[in-house]
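help with this record:
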Amino acid sequence: MAKSDNKVRKVAMFDRTIIFVSLLLLLISIVLISSASVQEAFNKTGDTYFYLKRQVAFTAVAITWGILMTSIPSKTWFNIALPLMGMAMALLVLVLIVGKEVNEAKRWIGIGPINLQPAELLKLFWIIYFSSYTCRKIEMVRHQISGFIKPLCFIGCIAGLLLMQPDFGSLVVVTAITFGILFVAGAGLLKYVSTLSLVALAGAVIIWVQPYRLARITAFLDPWQDRFGKGYQLTQSLIAFGRGGLTGEGIGNSIQKLGYLPEAHTDFVMSIMGEECGFIGVCFVILLEFIIVAKAIMLSAKILKQKVMFQGYVAFGIGMFFCLQTVINIGAASGGLPTKGLTLPLISYGGSSLIVCMWALAILLRIDYEWRTQKLGEINYNC
């Protein structure tokens, strides 16, 4: 009996809210993919449930991988941060050489029946690496301009590789996470604001000099001006949201998924959610996503109060990752932001995104477990 009670206490040490919300989002994802992908799956493969079967398989792999990752102590990620980042950079180079081109973008490496997207791994590995860098160079980050310049040079290398794919959306996420961690680390306000301004200016120049990105901006500002050209995807997405109204048309009753809205099961899956489940359904998914964000940021605050920097920065970075992906994806689908091609965490179709999100949540759960049980291992930041 004592052994049984001990097991119950051990299981309860993991944050059950995060586990429940994550599983609920995965369930919603399977239901949404089963509805949103039927037409495209039939057109491309002749199998109505082709994408659904793959998503179920991806979900099973992601859950299994997440469970395995929760067994790894959080300080292990500090010790292997540099090799992980080296692997991410190598994959970013490799995708430019042997990657598959889809819609004029070379972002995927074909490995048998699956496609690996290195940019998704990069986001998680960068959170781990930059958190370790900030811990090791905390005095430099807080008091010297070189503490800013070094990571920005690294970001410049990453930017070059991502823009060659091209994947501007992932670059925005990585850059925002970098500045978020710098802010939490206590970087000087003047250096922070001036550097952020320079990065924003560089981003504006990148958009201006590349015609297709500028076209996306103009299409976002007034999609109805060219509703059968550059603004087609956004106008169809807005029609989906409009048809859904407050309560939606009902699961499976979407019209826009029947060949009208491109990428209905990936980048614009929330448009189908809006059409079938209405404003209430969309708000429910946003609430679930931001429960994870809030949990991550609150955990980060608690850990940083104990002067445990690495785990605190990683938890904050994971919270920012989920927040940015959610805001940008739903913002693009609803016309609030230009389209970026970013997935909605735990919802959009795709194995790379799903596995990386579950991996990030597993690390978050492990950090939370170690904080609850006072097992946050001491890390030598001078190594």
About this structure: The chain is about 70% helix and 5% strand.
